[in-house]
Amino acid sequence: MGVAEDKVVEDLKKGYRKTSNRYLRGCKTLLCIAFFAPLIAILDIRQSFETIEVWFRQSGAITMVYALLSTTVADMGLRKLHRPGESGDLYKLQVLDEFTN
């Protein structure tokens, strides 16, 4: 390949990395929310008629929702690079390999 072709390939990979990093940041943000949701129960921010046990159980449900959202966002990001069962773009697969290794 020539220098011009190498630059085009690197620009393509850069775009794929940028998209993948955006999904990865979203996934990390959702996981942080899922992690800190039960810790908010310690601050005792709840309605007066709820016990701390009920509030902690509800924050566990919030944790589950955000963890599932995080998994969905991660899967969406991976599917931008490669859909199982389909032939893949060589450069997308190389970027996918960078993220999985």
Count of the domains:
1
Q: Work out the helicity level.
A: over 70%
Chain-averaged pLDDT = 80
| Strand residues, percent | under 5%
Q: Radius of gyration in whole Å, from Cα?
A: 20 Å
Q: How many DSSP H or I helices? A: 3
**Structural class computed from helices and strand pairing:** mainly alpha
Q: What are the segments in which pLDDT stays under 50 over at least 5 consecutive residues?
A: none
- Major sheet details: none
Summarize the structure.
The protein has 101 residues and is mainly alpha-helical.
Summarize the helices and strands and which ones pair or pack.
Blueprint: H1 3-40, H2 52-81, H3 90-100
Helix pairs in contact: 1-2, 1-3
Provide a descriptive summary of the structure in words.
- This protein is mostly helical.
- Helix content is 78%, strand content 0%.
- It has one domain (3-100).
- The protein has helices at residues 3-40, 52-81, 90-100.
- Helix 1 runs antiparallel to helix 2 (52-81) and helix 1 (3-40) packs across helix 3 (90-100).
- The longest helix is centred in the first third of the chain and has 38 residues, at 3-40.
- It starts with a helix and ends with a helix.
- The model has no long low-confidence stretch (mean pLDDT 80).
Keywords:
single chain, mainly alpha, 3 helices, elongated
